[in-house]
Every structure is written in C-alpha cells, then in structure tokens.
Here is the input.
Amino acid sequence: MKWIVTDVRCGLFWQEQPQAERLDDCMKNVTVYEDARYQTFDGFGGAFTEAAGVAYAALSGAQKEAFIEAYFGESGLRYALGRLHIGSCDFALGNYAYAWNERLEPFCVDRDERYILPLLRAALCRRPLSLLASPWSPPACMKTNGEMNHGGRLKRECYCAWAEYVAKYLDAYRAMGIRIDRITVQNEPEAVQQWDSCLYTAREEAELVRTALAPALKRHGLEDVGIFIWDHNKEGLPRRVEGVMRDPEAARQVKGAAFHWYTGDHFESVALVRERYPQLRLYFTEGCVEYSRFADSTETCKAEMYAHDIIGNLNAGINGSIDWNLMLQADGGPNHVGNFCAAPIMASEDGQTFEKRLSYYYIGHFSRYIQPGARRLAASRYTSALEICAFENPDGTHAAVLLNRTPREVPLSLLAGGGAWGLSLAGHSIGTLCW
Here is the structure.
C-alpha cells in the first residue's frame, strides 16, 4: 500500500507518506467498490502544437531530454495520448495549410518538420502514443468567408475536397511511420474565433461525415481511424451528439465524441452522453488556464482546476483525457493572435530551460498511477470536502485519487481491497492511494 501526496505548502511533490493507524469511525469512511466496474480508460496526454514545438526547439540538448522524460518517461507523467492540429491553430506562428487550392496540388506537410515533428518523434522514441488530430480550419479557398480565421463555413461543393485533404494528411504521417488513430471533424464548430475557425451545425457535421469524410477514409484504406464529433465545450455535448447520431449512416461511422472545459463543469452533460450512447468513446481533448480569464489565479488554483475537472470527467465516464499545449514560452505563447495561456510546463524567460508548474504534479497523481486500459471503480465519500475517483489497472493494481480543495485538513478511513487505512489529507492538497 502506497500513499503518495502533493502538498505544496510542505514542499512535497509525489512524496510517499506512511499510513496512519486504522481510523475506526464509520462517519469518516471513503469506500472503493471493486466489484462495481465502469468504463475503460485509454490514458492521459497533451497537445503537440507548433507553439509547444517552438518552446521545445529552444531548449538545450540535455533540457530536451529532461522535458521528454518529464512527460513521457517512467519518472514523469507517463503520457499515452497526444493531440495534433491539422494545419494551423491559434497556437501556431500564423495561418497555414498543406494545400491552398481545391485540387490539393501540391499537398505538402513539410512545415510540420520544423517544430511539430521533432517534438513528436522524440516523444514516440520514449513511449508509444495513441494520437488524435483535429482541424481548426480548411484552406481559405474552401470557406464561405474566404479566410481561415473568423468562422465561416466549409462550402458544400468543397466537402469532398476537404475530406480528401484530411485523408492525405493522415497518409503523409503514416508514410513517415506515424500512425494517427483518431480525428475530430472540427475543433470548436460553434465558435467564431479571431483565429483559425470554421462553423458546422449538427446536420452539416453529420452530412460531412456521411457523404465525404468516411468515404475518403475508406478510399485511402484508413477505415481504422476513428471519427469523433463535437470537440467543443461540455454543455453542448448532448445536443450535438443527439443531432449527429440522428443521421443513421453518420451514426454508423462516428466512433466517439470530444469536448473541452471552457464553460464550466457540466459533468452531467458528459454522463448523459455516456448513458445514452455507451458505444461511443468520450475524450476530453482540450483545457488550459487562459490568461484572459485567470491571469491572477494562484498556482494552487490552477492545479485544482485540473484535478477537479479530471475527477469529474472520469466519474462521468470519459475514456481519454488530453491537455492542451505540452509547453509554452514564458509569456504563454507563441500565439498568432495573442491568445496566451498557461501550460503544466513553462519555459524560462531565456527559453533555454523549463519549469514544472504545480498543475504538472497534480496531473501526475492521475497519469502516473491510472494505466491505459484501467477500469473505473465505484467510490463514495462521507464529505463534499473530498473528491475521489478510483481505478483497477490491467496488471491488477488499484489507484484512488483524492482531492481536497478546502483550507482545512480532512481525516478519512479509506475502505478498499479488503482493508481500511486511516489517512489525512491536508487542506489544498491531493493524494493517490495505490494497492
């Protein structure tokens, strides 16, 4: 039995602590029910954005190695998933596409060789990753507004050309030995952004999947690539999934749904989709601490935002969790529209070294001990001061993560594995119990 704690006030990060004597107080029980199993979990990960690649490229050789270990090594977060952007996104150096005409000639992904692929290849050398890719915008010529930014829609006459574009991107990566397992139809399809964006209704998303995207994948021998819908905020997830799955042929092609966290908890929305569509894989695909809203928040607040959201999403039934940028420069960029934010690892002011933020250690309480293929277990708690999730790993080990966002210490008796352990979780801290 291991009890791993992060308590920043005591300077503890993933420190193993001794268990206390058994706490024989049924009023303070926290119970894990190992015979009540729910969804399987594919793992945790982060996004290989061009911005992250720029920050990584500036590191010294030794620091590059340390960075890869920090995310993908045994001593780090042990990430198993990754997200890529198809063409440019806000965390790129500017708008770009792999082809600028509807004929897709020439089609070239060489731009990714400068920053994205060196980072991705270094990660893949350390650990196999299951990758998901998302487009932010088609090329300007395929859109109703004639530009990649500020929303607009994909022209109906360009549905097949755009689907071919996505298939060519997947082919290009496979030709380099990099397999992408999942794609989302569109990043944030209901948002008109000052950066790369494109709008789709549920009916349009279903039509694109049915008439163009799924057929293009089949033509290219890419039927094994899972198509995920939505890729936007949680509160709209049930409505969008219902709208797309109403189309029978599109529903046969859709393998999952993705979502972000920017409009609040909405864990009930995720749970509703899990209940109504048990056949779908549900992935959290993006979340970050935006400087435009949380510039003055403390590191503890940022870390607790992550842990609270992860626990809520896991208990609602998700199958995968992917953070946003793996690393950013000290100012929260680069970003071609000034949309800066924080990341779990931030580069130093001179860009040559990096710093692990508290959110990095909080994420590690989940990603280091909940293995890909783990099965969620039922858990109950005696107080709302504690948040908990629990899993059984494929190797038969178990992990329960407990979060205390209150300022007071919370005692508990954790009942699991046929035993009971008296523990105490300090105010504003997180702990993982492994058995």
Q: What stands out?
A: Residues 202-219 form the longest helix (18 residues). The chain is about 30% helix and 30% strand. The longest strand covers residues 29-41. The two ends are 5 Å apart (CA to CA).
